[in-house]
Amino acid sequence: MEELQVEDAINAAIIQAAGTWRMTKGIYSIDHIETVSPSESLHEGILEQLPEWCIYINLQGAWGMHGVYVSLESDVKDGRAELRFLVDSLDELTPKLLHVGNWSVEEGLHRMGGEAQRVSFDMRGRVLPETPKDDIPLMTRLVGLVNYISDPATIISGNGKPGNPEPVKTKNGWKLFPRDKVSLWKVSS
Question: How many domains does the chain have?
């Protein structure tokens, strides 16, 4: 059996983000993005209030990034909530994951890193490098943006209202269809 490479995980993350985002096609632009406070904590409840299954936050070059895809997923084996980011930097796409719970961003990164170590060792018999400490400031910024967008007090305006597609009954049963076009959402307080 061929050994999995890091590039395989990156490609899977890109396909997951693109495949999930294509269903909703929402791009969120935040007024005065630099004033949104970083968040040290992950609040499981507020993260479940994402306006769509997968959103793209337009960072307009802030922090050296075009934007970031964000989705809340469940681990296929144990149902654990994971907040998944696909960072669209100026030169590459980079996946970042956090385990979600009532703990800090740093703890979420640590838990994700521990799980990655365990799976890597089980599959390949070797240990991965630890999650870089440099990820903590970036992730607290990104979690702050997600908390801001998900906050019920935040105003999201555009053409209509963001949301996930509804199943449609067809002659072959119920089906989900992706949105016809991209929706641009302006986010402000």
Answer: 1
DSSP labels, the chain: -PPP-HHHHHHHHHHHHHHHHHHH-EEEEETTGGGSPP-SEE-HHHHTT-SSSEEEEE-TTGGGEEEEEEEEEE-TTT--EEEEEEEEESS-EEEEEEE-SSEEHHHHHHHHHHHHHHHHHHHHS-PPPPPPTTHHHHHHHHHHHHHHHH-TTSEEESSS---PPPPEEETTEEE----SS-EEEEEE-
Domain annotation covers residue 29: yes
* Residue 37 resides in a domain: yes
Could you read off the pLDDT of 119-144 as tens digits, one per residue? 554 444 444 445 556 788 999 999 99
Q: Tell me the pTM.
A: 0.85
